[in-house]
Design a protein that fits this description.
With about 475 residues, this protein is α+β, with helices and mostly antiparallel strands. It has four domains: about 80 residues, Thrombin, subunit H; about 100 residues, Beta Barrel (Thrombin, subunit H), CATH 2.40.10; about 100 residues, Pdz3 Domain (Roll); about 120 residues, Pdz3 Domain (Roll), CATH 2.30.42.10. About 20% of the residues lie in helices and about 40% in strands. The strands form five sheets. The protein has a seven-stranded antiparallel β-sheet with strand order 5-4-1-2-3-7-6. Strands 22, 23, 24, 25, 26, 27 and 28 form a seven-stranded antiparallel β-sheet that branches. It has a six-stranded antiparallel β-barrel with strand order 9-10-11-14-13-12. Helix 4 runs parallel beside helix 7.
Length: about 475
């Protein structure tokens, strides 16, 4: 009997020892929505370190060596930069701020698990402070989920920032959304429009990291633009990313990779989504391009590409970046009865488009059509004949049409085109590649060199002008006098 009693007591003690602990009354789960949002995105947030390599002049301490003859007159200097970024595509495409990488010669991306990758710049646009990088990994990478749009934001809602402030990797801060549509002045008349203001502090190293809502969706890109601010931060809204990145990628595909596509696509409207429409909206189709020849029309909705549903304009262009010339894409397209319809009564069509090489533009022809300029590439004999301070291949103005944009801007025969919109122009081919990107009635900044005489001496005067491209490429037909070459 005693043995049975002892065995029974032992069984009771064992049961009590393995029973789950009872949570104290009034305690809460520590796994909050903030914890879940962080864990959902932490592996897709990266640290970005870059180096800008330059040369600096070192003062010569020896009187018997003059100027650059001193062998140590210049010294190589590496200027480091730190920032953050987030992966938007499993193939290794990373969004960050343009100011983090735009001047970088070397870029290193560090993952949350410590892995390091060399990164290259895909597209950079400093006017909107956005950049896209690419790393090559041996397997698919974790990605973030992009939010819908800024119209869905609430003042006072919880926001989270993940980044690497002052180099402290994978730092999480939280706060509230303090304001939307803030125009933030950066100095010297430069303004960043439509910014999100948050109470979470954003410090150097945070720039380029994601701003999340409580559901773990990216609603902005953090940017450290007001370093003196205390307890305040700013972020570029998700709208600016989803609107600008497709355009940046489209220009890269068309003008850098020379793929003749010829159409702009965008995400469908919220009204279309409410009607059950899924896909991408064809925003424009250029005449004479591959898209035009294939039969695309403005207002078409692309539902699949090669049988795969793509609901993001960003992913549409990222997919094209990895395609080779000669590849044929098969699109399923929904076509309605007009651009005002929501295509609920549209018909499905199949369109095939083959990616072809885009021909190189004719810089001489474009300069004439857009500005009324006839230009020529300088040769050695021309440089000697006209005492021009320039290099062979530099673009010189040969004629100026009367009443043309160039005429009214004050451009003269013999002027040398040095820059267009801050891009160096060293030859006719480079001029054509720059001019083909300009649209009708676009404002253009040119920097010119002009040879002038004073008291028998020749000198170079550099000047800049602003002029507008013609509304029609064939305006004007009269020529001013010209340089006899």
């Amino acid at each position: 009997m005693k043995k049975l009693l002892i065995i029974g007591l032992l069984v009771i003690l064992i049961q009590l020892s393995v029973r789950e602990p009872v949570m104290a009354e009034g305690s809460y789960s520590r796994r909050t929505p903030i914890v879940e949002a962080y864990e959902k995105n932490k592996d897709a947030v990266v640290s970005i370190s870059s180096k800008y390599i330059t040369e600096v002049r070192v003062e010569n301490p020896f009187w018997f060596w003059s100027g650059d003859d001193w062998p140590f007159s210049r010294r190589r200097m590496e200027i480091p930069s730190l920032g953050s970024g987030f992966i938007i595509n499993e193939l290794g495409y990373i969004v960050t701020n343009a100011h983090v990488v735009e001047r970088a010669d070397e870029i290193t991306v560090v993952m949350s698990d410590g892995r390091k990758f060399d990164a290259r710049k895909v597209v950079v646009k400093d006017s909107v402070d956005l950049a896209l990088l690419k790393i090559d990994a041996d397997k698919s990478l974790p990605t973030v989920t992009l939010g819908e749009c800024s119209d869905d934001l609430y003042i006072g809602e919880t926001v989270l920032a993940i980044g690497n402030p002052f180099g402290y990797q994978q730092t999480l801060t939280d706060g509230i959304l303090s304001a939307i549509h803030r125009d933030v002045e950066l100095g010297e008349g430069v303004i960043m429009p439509e910014m999100l203001q948050i109470s979470a502090p954003i410090n150097p190293g945070n720039s380029g990291g994601p701003l999340l809502n409580i559901n773990g969706e990216v609603i902005g890109i953090n940017t450290a633009i007001r370093r003196a601010a205390q307890g305040i931060g700013f972020a570029i809204s998700i709208d600016r990313l989803t609107e600008n990145l497709p355009e940046m990628l489209s220009n890269d595909i068309e003008f850098k990779k020379r793929i003749n596509l010829g159409m702009q696509v965008t995400n469908i409207t919220s009204q279309m989504k409410m009607m059950g429409v899924k896909g991408l909206l064809v925003q424009s189709v250029r005449a004479g391009t591959a898209a035009d020849a294939a039969g695309f029309q403005t207002g078409d909705v692309i539902t699949t590409v090669d049988g795969v549903v793509i609901n993001s304009a960003i992913n549409f262009y990222l997919n094209l970046l990895d395609r080779h010339l000669g590849a044929t894409l098969v699109f399923n397209v929904l076509r309605g009865n007009g651009t005002d319809t929501l295509m609920s009564d549209g018909k499905q069509q199949k369109i095939e488009l083959t990616l072809r090489q885009r021909p190189k533009p004719d810089g001489i022809e474009l300069a004439s059509k857009l500005f009324g300029l006839e230009v020529v590439a300088l040769t050695e004999s021309m440089i000697q004949r006209y005492n021009v301070y320039a290099n062979p291949g530099n673009v010189m103005v040969k004629k100026v049409e009367k009443d043309s944009p160039a005429y009214h801007a004050g451009i003269e025969i013999g002027d040398i085109i040095m820059k267009i919109n801050d891009s160096e122009i060293s030859g006719i081919e480079q001029l054509g590649l720059k001019l083909e990107m300009l649209e009708s009635q676009a404002m253009v900044k040119m920097i010119m060199n002009r040879i002038q005489k004073s008291r028998g001496y020749l000198y170079i005067r550099s000047y800049d002008i602003i002029l507008r491209t013609r509304s029609s490429a064939f305006e004007g037909s009269q020529n001013n006098n010209s340089l006899d070459l």
